[in-house]
Design a protein that fits this description.
The protein is an alpha+beta fold. It is 56% helix and 14% strand. The strands form three sheets. A four-stranded mixed β-sheet has the order 1-4-5-8. The radius of gyration is 20 Å and the shape is globular.
Length: 360
């Protein structure tokens, strides 16, 4: 048996990389980072033409009907390109609808999501990573009240999936009365996070309860891990390329043993993470009994690997590593946000310990 990506999966990554190279080069990312009002509509339209919004949506609803492994490969490509798109909602919202939505809800929303006509966001941070300050959403009589923080793509989403404090999931329309949104400043300039406030907002409950929330959490962990994996790959490649051309004391710095070791250590950290991320994505659909634990391990490991690679790659570049001209900071900061989204590594390891019965 061959444990490797299929030719179709390799083609998916290659095609998406070319699309991102045309639609979202680093100069386009810079413009997005410099203008908080820029919705990157042109980038989204290019990805919609590619079919990315429908990647996990069944074909009968206009999507591609692919697996989470395929979505993870797409997330890896987006991380490589530091693409300014809200990919979390692209995957998690359809999973929520498919796992807990009614036939009517699926018929209304899935075709729109697959076509890219509507973007979605998923507000589950408090339910997964724990509430901060006064955050948390309560549900009563079909109404939601409270606050949800760190919602990727929440500023412009036309559909929002919200988790309440008891683990229930709800569908909220983007134009619902009582819903307000505020842009949250964060270190990653390539993605927008929102603070959502619910003041008696009408919501449609989704079936599935805490079990469905766990599935969304696991998928979210895998997507974040894959995004980090792509960012790590680029930071290693840029470090190696720089070490081959930067000269000091009459020699390229890559000829010095210390620099060689730094690049080799980055590669040695990344490769095991790649296998784990891919297997966690595969397990989500094919080995449910392993899905939560492998997703937790993938998220925790890539959080640590990402921090190491970001620091080491910057050190290889020296003073150039922190300049805007080089742009390395975009990947550095993206890895920093990924480390904390849906729980930092300490929180994720605690959940992994509970899954294994090693902690109460």
């Amino acid at each position: 048996m061959e444990f490797a990506l299929t030719s179709d999966q390799k083609m998916l990554q290659d095609s998406l990389a070319r699309t991102l190279g045309d639609a979202s080069p680093l100069d386009r990312v810079r413009r997005f980072a410099d203008d908080v009002a820029d919705p990157a509509k042109d980038v989204w339209e290019a990805l919609a033409d590619f079919g990315l919004p429908g990647i996990v949506i069944p074909e009968e609803h206009g999507g591609l009907g692919l697996t989470l492994l395929d979505a993870a490969l797409a997330s890896e490509a987006l991380g490589r390109a530091v693409a300014p798109v809200p990919f979390m909602g692209v995957v998690l919202a359809p999973l929520a609808l498919l796992g807990g939505g009614t036939a009517a809800q699926q018929a209304e929303w899935l075709p729109k999501l697959a076509a890219g006509e509507v973007t979605a966001a998923v507000a589950i941070s408090e339910a997964v990573a724990g509430a901060r300050e006064d955050a948390g959403v309560t549900a009563k009589a079909g109404k939601l009240s409270g606050k949800a923080l760190f919602v990727p793509g929440g500023i412009s989403a036309g559909l929002i999936i919200v988790a309440d404090t008891k683990g229930g999931l709800h569908l909220v329309r983007g134009d619902a009365a009582g819903l307000s949104r505020v842009l949250m400043l964060n270190i990653d300039e390539t993605r927008r996070l929102a603070e959502l406030t619910f003041d008696g907002v009408a919501a449609e409950p989704l079936a599935g309860g805490p079990e469905l929330l766990v599935r969304l959490r696991d998928a979210g962990w895998v997507l974040i891990a894959a995004d980090s994996l792509g960012a790590c790959d680029v930071m290693l490649e840029q470090a190696v390329a720089y070490a081959k051309e930067r000269r000091q004391f009459g020699r390229v710095i890559g000829s010095y043993q210390a620099v060689k070791h730094m690049c080799a250590e980055m590669a040695a950290e990344i490769e095991p993470a790649r296998s784990l991320v891919w297997y966690a994505a595969y397990a989500f659909d094919a080995a449910h009994e392993e899905a939560s634990l492998t997703a937790a391990h993938a998220k925790a490991l890539t959080s640590e690997v990402g921090r190491f690679v970001a620091r080491t790659s910057t050190e290889v570049h020296g003073g150039m590593g922190i300049t805007d001209l080089l742009g390395l900071h975009f990947w550095f900061k993206r890895l920093g946000l990924n480390r904390q989204l849906l729980g930092g590594p300490e929180r994720v390891r605690e959940i992994a310990a509970r899954i294994q019965g090693l902690a109460a």
